[in-house]
Specification:
With 252 residues, the protein is of the alpha+beta class. The chain has eight helices and 15 strands. Pfam families: AbiGi.
Length: 252
């Protein structure tokens, strides 16, 4: 027995769920802001996010869309996903981390030997990589430029992330927030990671979630149209694992 389920869920819109089923997950840049008692840092990271919640808890986590897919944790482990580290914004640890990484970066400009620079640069990136798996325990929740919650508890999401390797060719592991504020800027950087896929097989799927009953038939029909990925046996199996938001909110 465990407090945690054996499934990770990803929620989105109907359009994007269908795209995921047809061509798997695409990586995109997400804006992140981590805050300490004094220091803060804002940036964007290429990723795909999931939540580590049981079916009975999903009713509290439908902010990102009414359509979703649940995949096994065995699949997540094989693909190198990891839960994020939640740190209290009032904790000195966050300030120390931000200051430490800023300090390493400042040393880069002082190094003249190319080998030392390369070694220090690799060390900096390895430490910076920690940023890609850190989130405040709670803080302000912004969506589309609007403040939705002044003290949202991000830890309730129990987020897991897939992020590309640091040395992935042509991919910036971090982007300064000033370069990705507008929709056009974000599209520019997302195009740079468009070729990266987080693949799964039909056997990795445990659940599919749709908004309402009428969406079930539409989804089954769509699975029939994507014959290259879903054979008849798989379609029948997945049809029995489709849940609706109404079921989750009322019955689970």
């Amino acid at each position: 027995m465990s407090l945690y389920p054996t499934t990770l869920f990803h929620f989105t819109s109907k359009e994007f769920l269908y795209q995921i089923l047809e061509s798997t997950f695409k990586v995109s840049y997400a804006r992140e802001k981590i805050i300490g008692p004094v220091n803060n840092r804002e940036f964007a990271v290429p990723m795909v996010s999931f939540c580590d919640l049981k079916l009975s808890e999903l009713k509290f986590f439908l902010n990102y869309g009414k359509f979703g897919i649940g995949l096994t944790k065995d699949w997540a482990n094989k693909n190198g996903l990891s839960p994020v580290m939640y740190i209290n914004r009032h904790c000195q640890l966050m300030d120390n981390l931000i200051s430490g990484i800023t300090g390493i970066y400042s040393h880069l400009s002082l190094v003249e030997n190319i080998n030392q620079f390369n070694n220090l640069n690799k060390s900096y990136l390895n430490v910076m990589n920690t940023y890609r798996y850190i989130k405040n325990y709670e803080g302000e929740l912004w969506r589309q430029g609007r403040l939705e919650n002044e003290n949202y508890r991000f830890a309730d999401e129990r987020e897991w992330r897939f992020v590309p390797q640091l040395d992935t060719e042509g991919v910036a592991p971090f982007v300064g927030i000033s370069k990705i504020r507008s929709k056009k800027q974000k599209e520019f950087y997302n195009n740079k990671v468009n070729q990266i896929r987080l693949n799964f097989s039909p056997d990795d799927i445990k659940y599919l979630v749709v908004e309402k009953d009428s969406d079930i038939t539409e989804l089954i029909n769509y699975l029939h149209s994507v014959k290259i990925r879903f054979d008849e046996e798989t379609r029948n199996r997945l049809a029995s694992r489709i849940l609706t938001v109404e079921q989750i909110e009322k019955d689970i």
